[in-house]
Amino acid sequence: MFRFLHSSDLHIGKRFGTMPEELRGRLRDARHTVIDRLAARAREGGAGTILLAGDCFDTETPSPAMLRQALAAMAGHAPLRWVVLPGNHDSLLADELWAAARAALPANVVLAMEPEPFALEAGVAILPAPCTTRRPGRDLTDWMDRAATPEGALRIGLAHGAIQSFSEDGVGLEVIAPDRATRSGLDYLALGDWHGQMQINARSWYSGAPEQDRFKHEGPGRALLVSLAGPGAVPEVTSVETGSFDWRMLPLKLLSGDDAAALLGERLPSGSIRRQILLKVEAAGRLRPQARAALDAAVAAVAPEFAHLALDADALATDCDSEDLDAIDRAGALRQAADRLFAESLDESRPGSERQAARDALVRLFSYCEAMTS
């Protein structure tokens, strides 16, 4: 039995420039400390090796401190072994990065820099496919079909990139053949690049990122605990949680007349876990202006309790009539502004972005008037 932890896409050094400044440091620190969480999951699962299938670093030029601190964290978890593969973000073109890594390499860390098999231990061969550039433009795992390994040894592939797919006209769009494990006689193919956990077939998996960095892949980051009973045996693969932050999407489908603020309150997660949750509320449907203003106010009121809370209202239309506009004013400058914004929001000759801007401005006007009268 050979057991290992499969992970990828740590992206140490990611800047998170679109996030609020006070949150960026917490997100960056989580990418460093995930090394400790990976080590903990490996020990708990009885694994002595951690395979990192590319993109340990977010750029080809991480600072010396980022590199040395990552290596020191791995060294601190000896005798666990770490096998590090260059990905598309930290490819083989990063000469200074990998030269500095070699110079400070701990004894329990292996850099998988060459496309050739190497013995990890007796009876276990690793077949790595390091990324040569950001966009290699070819299947870097192709050589595995012809790679010789000792008879009876486990063959474990390690690669980073997209699985090959085809459009309707038969043109290949990506790079790695989906049946590479079968073609190359691999017992397991550990893949990186896709940040969500995904099974391609019984022997080929994307581990997903151990610490998520976008709403596209919901939930906390995860890794894979893999057990191989012997050559030819079907791998036993178990998903394990490694992330400290939880990225979530909350769809909120609304009808005109709904109390959107109350519906939001019913669906929000509660308690101290909010501090570790990044939540995007995706509102869709239609709302009266007063209800939309109340929704905005409810989001603003509860947002400080979350790591991050944002409202996406691009698919939310505003239902409005003269009675709604009377709530702003029956005459005067404010009413004139409201009438103009209402007309612009319905003007099909305008681009959708302009109509949305008019709807948003109308909601803000409602919010302003309510604040003035309260």
What's this model, at a glance?
The chain is α/β, with parallel strands linked by helices and about 375 residues long. The protein is built from 9 helices and 14 strands. It has an 8-stranded mixed β-sheet with strand order 4-3-2-1-11-12-13-14, with helices on both faces. The protein has a 6-stranded mixed β-sheet with strand order 5-6-7-8-10-9, with no helix packed on it.
Protein architecture, described:
This protein is an alpha/beta fold. It folds into 2 domains: 244 residues, Purple Acid Phosphatase, chain A, domain 2, CATH 3.60.21; 119 residues, no CATH class. The chain has 9 helices and 14 strands. The strands form 2 sheets. The chain has an 8-stranded mixed sheet, with helices on both faces. The longest helix is centred in the N-terminal third of the chain and has 24 residues. The termini are far apart. The relative contact order is 0.10. The model has no long low-confidence stretch (mean pLDDT 92).
